[in-house]
Write a sequence for this structure.
């Protein structure tokens, strides 16, 4: 009997180890293209709270269930538990990279000034939004209610974020209380971002999400790990945005509002703007328009390698980074919704 019990314990341990080994750590963001069940267990389908993904929402990507996954493990803020499984067909991955090594800290005690890595791995991910597409999926947001047909964001990229890498490098020196508040429903409870008047005015234009306190979230989660002050961090992001919005890449979008673009066309425009090969560093993300079913281009992400500062150029930062997958193969350039 004892032998049988021992065998059973060993077998259970082996099976458990096999399950753990099968789970493959991933990083980046999972962007939901559909509303799908987010379950605690793949096998049983158990779903405490009856949680589903929100179309267009970005979720932290944690793992796949195997080397060629059928399901992704994501973090769903506010769910209990937060770690949930979704089918890979429910959305797409943005900004995927190598996961942190086991035991590595996701919150360094003191952020350091970033320098060029020399390895080609991104030091930052620069995320550009196409705001009309975002607003198709989140019309209740304050910035989307204020959307105008002739507004800045009708024909220009807007700022989503500038994210120090590697993925998981979040909340540097941030209190547990502020981390707990960092969900869209509580961003207004986070500490205000202190900027000079000119920078604040520019940021409110280039980042429409400031109407929902997006800048507070971006600073708390990402900016605190940049080694820069709030003023410097957002000033650098605005400088990069001006460069993109003054380029052939922005012209391509402005001239094709209401039309479909391919990832190849977008990458070619970045080659034209920033040099041959720049387009290979651009990844396209799309969302599904819930009213029409069309696939809309929602975001571009660029890997940047090198220090940010007055002497850095966007072209050099892009070209120093490693190539990435093209992402969404094609989608429509959306126009603002009628108010």
């Amino acid at each position: 009997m004892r032998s049988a019990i021992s065998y059973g314990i060993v077998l259970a341990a082996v099976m458990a180890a096999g399950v753990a080994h099968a789970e493959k750590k991933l990083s980046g963001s999972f962007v939901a293209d559909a509303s799908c069940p987010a379950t605690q267990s793949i096998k049983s389908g158990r779903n405490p709270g009856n949680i589903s993904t929100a179309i267009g929402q970005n979720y932290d990507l944690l793992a796949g269930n195997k080397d060629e996954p059928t399901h992704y493990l994501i973090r769903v803020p506010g769910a209990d538990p937060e770690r949930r499984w979704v089918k890979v067909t429910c959305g797409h991955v943005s900004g995927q990279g190598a996961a942190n090594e086991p035991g590595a800290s996701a919150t360094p005690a003191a952020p350091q000034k970033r320098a060029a890595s020399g390895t080609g791995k991104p030091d930052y991910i620069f995320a550009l939004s196409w705001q009309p597409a975002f607003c198709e999926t989140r019309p209740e947001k304050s910035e989307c209610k204020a959307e105008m047909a002739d507004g800045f964001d009708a024909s220009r990229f807007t700022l989503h974020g500038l994210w120090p890498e590697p993925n998981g490098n979040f909340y540097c020196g941030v209190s547990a209380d502020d981390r707990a508040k960092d969900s869209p429903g509580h961003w207004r409870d986070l500490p205000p971002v202190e900027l000079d008047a000119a920078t604040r005015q520019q940021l409110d234009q280039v980042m429409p999400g400031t109407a929902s306190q997006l800048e507070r979230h971006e600073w708390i989660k990402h900016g605190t790990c940049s080694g820069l002050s709030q003023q410097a961090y957002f000033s650098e992001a605005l400088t990069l945005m001006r460069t993109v919005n003054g380029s052939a890449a922005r012209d391509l979008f402005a001239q094709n509002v209401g039309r479909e673009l391919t990832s190849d066309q977008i990458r070619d425009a970045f080659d034209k703007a920033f040099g041959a090969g720049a387009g290979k560093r651009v990844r396209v993300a799309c969302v599904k328009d819930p009213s029409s079913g069309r696939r809309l281009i929602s975001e571009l992400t660029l890997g940047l390698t090198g220090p940010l500062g007055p002497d850095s150029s966007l072209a050099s930062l892009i070209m120093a980074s490693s190539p990435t997958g093209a992402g969404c193969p094609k989608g429509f350039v959306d126009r603002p919704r009628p108010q």
User: Anything to note?
Assistant: The radius of gyration is 21 Å. The longest strand covers residues 295-304.
